[in-house]
Amino acid sequence: MPAAGAAPVRRLGIDVGGTKCLAVVLDETGAVVGEERRPTPHGPQAIVDAIVALVDECRPFTSIGVGVPGLVTRAGVLRAAPNLVDTTDFHVREMLGERLGVAVEVDNDATCAAVAEWTFGAARGSSDFVLVTLGTGIGGGIVAGGALQRGANGFTGEIGHMVVDPHGPPCPCGRNGCWERYASGSGLGRLAREVAGEGRLVRVVELAGGDVAAVRGEHVQAAAAEGDAAALAVINDYARWVALGLVNLTNILDPQMFVLGGGLATAGEMYLAPILRWMTQLLYAPELRPHPQVVFAEWGERAGAVGAALLPTVR
User: Fold this and answer.
1) Is the distance from CB of 55 to CB of 100 less than 8 angstroms?
2) How far apart are CA 36 and CA 26, in angstroms?
3) Which structural domains are found in the chain, ordered by start?
């Protein structure tokens, strides 16, 4: 609780996504006491304008943090972001500091989401976990030995660009066969369209309005929820790709748990059993080691903004 006479704690966090900017205000308990959003515009100056407008709508605040997607340096410079147009070498912290006249913490959006789940979410009490966001792409946030990992340059957690098939489909990063081409939400849709093109996903195509090209992950989920065998087979194949990446991360990091977030986490129970089954098959020496726990994120779409608000409290 704030001291007598002190202003109440109001931590402001803003998550800049590919389509929207979401702002939340937290009180000292971590409860969301304010929320605003705006569409994400194109270009650094327009994005700064949108953030400043959100800040003005959320005043007063006692601290501010911002999460952005892509390679974010320790100095708060966004070096590259595949889902934000014309944002190479975007000096986010400097530009916002000049406009707002206050210190602004800036970090990767998935790292922010990890902070949210670690502090007030599914990873409370864990000293070693990996946050995996399964959305349009795959992002990651890593806590090891009780410390948030940022790496030498601030780029830790770009796990979606781990290559799992060098002969696989092209990735926006310029390489082929990145994990996110298979295990993201868009990856599920791609796997489904391949099968649908062979005439093996009749119900899924029906749900997509009869157009194979329109098939998305949500159509597969809906058909699988109805018990459609072909859709369940695609879910199983997708779960194998998810598990492959989790196993690779397990061999490298030996985490206590994985926290799965992003859009697919809303239907998480559908994926959990096949992911765990494939992890047992793919893990090195599975019978001789503890297996990491796999849980689902609790903050949903707010995770990045909540974690951004908490950045000033994390070192």
Assistant:
1) yes
2) 12
3) 11-116+302-313 (3.30.420.40), 122-297 (3.30.420.40)
Instruction: Name the pTM for this structure.
Output: 0.92
Q: Angle, nearest 10°, between helix axes 303-310 and 109-120? A: 80
The secondary structure of residue 160, as a DSSP letter, is: G
Left if phi > 0, otherwise alpha if psi is -120 to 50, otherwise beta: which for 229? alpha
Show the tokens assigned to 302.
Answer: 């707010």
Q: What's the pLDDT tens digit per position in 62-86?
A: 999 999 999 999 999 999 987 788 8
- The span from the CA of 128 to the CA of 252, in Å, is 12
Backbone angles phi, psi at 140, to 5 degrees: -150, 150
Whether the Cβ atoms of residue 43 and residue 96 lie closer than 8 Å to each other: no
Q: Are strands 63-68 and 11-16 parallel, antiparallel or unpaired?
A: parallel
Nearest to 188 by CA among 176, 204, 202: 204
Q: Is the preceding omega at residue 60 within 30 degrees of 0, hence cis?
A: yes
Q: Which residues contact 233 (CB under 8 A, 6 or more apart)?
A: 195
The pLDDT assigned to 122 comes to: 96
> Which residues is 147 bridged to in the sheet?
144
CA distances from 88 to 17, 37, 75, 78 (A): 15, 24, 15, 7
**Residues lower than pLDDT 50 in the chain:** none
Which H or E run contains 91? strand 90-91
Distance of alpha carbon 157 from alpha carbon 141, whole angstroms: 5
Long-range contacts of 311-314 (CB under 8 A, 24+ apart): 311/13, 311/65, 311/67, 311/105, 311/106, 311/107, 311/112, 311/115, 312/11, 312/63, 312/64, 312/65, 312/105, 313/11, 313/119, 314/115, 314/119, 314/148
Residue 35 CB neighbours (<10 A) = 13
What are the b/e assignments for 165-188, b being 16+ CB within 10 Å? Answer: eeeeeebebeeebbbbbbbbbbbb
